[in-house]
Design a protein that fits this description.
88 residues, 4 strands, single chain, four-stranded mixed sheet, alpha+beta
C-alpha cells in the first residue's frame, strides 16, 4: 500500500509517503519541484498520484527498506536512468 499526502511548499510540493505491508510501515519525504510536476505528470495528475507512481517504479527495482527516507523526485533518475522514460 502506498499513501501520499502533498502540501504546497516553495517551488513545488512536500510529500509524505507511507508504505505499508504485512507487519511493516515506512515513511518517506519527497520534494516535488513544480518543473518536475510539469515534466512527468500526466494531464490533470496530482502530485500525490505522480509520487505514488514513482514509488511503484522504485519498488519494482528495490525493497522498500532500501528507498531513501528523504529525497527530491528528480533524484530518482540519478540512480535509475530509465526513470525519465518510464514515468512519462
Amino acid at each position: 500500500m502506498i499513501e501520499v499526502q502533498a502540501a504546497p511548499a516553495e517551488g513545488g510540493f512536500d510529500c509524505v509517503v507511507e508504505l505499508g505491508g504485512p507487519g511493516s510501515r515506512a515513511r518517506h519525504n519527497v520534494r516535488v519541484a513544480t518543473k518536475d510536476l510539469k515534466r512527468w505528470a500526466r494531464p490533470g495528475e496530482t502530485p500525490e498520484s505522480l509520487v505514488a507512481r514513482s514509488f511503484e517504479f522504485l519498488l519494482q527495482r528495490e525493497p522498500a527498506h532500501q528507498v531513501l527516507k528523504s529525497f527530491a523526485l528528480s533524484d530518482i533518475g540519478r540512480y535509475f536512468p530509465e526513470f525519465d522514460e518510464a514515468i512519462r
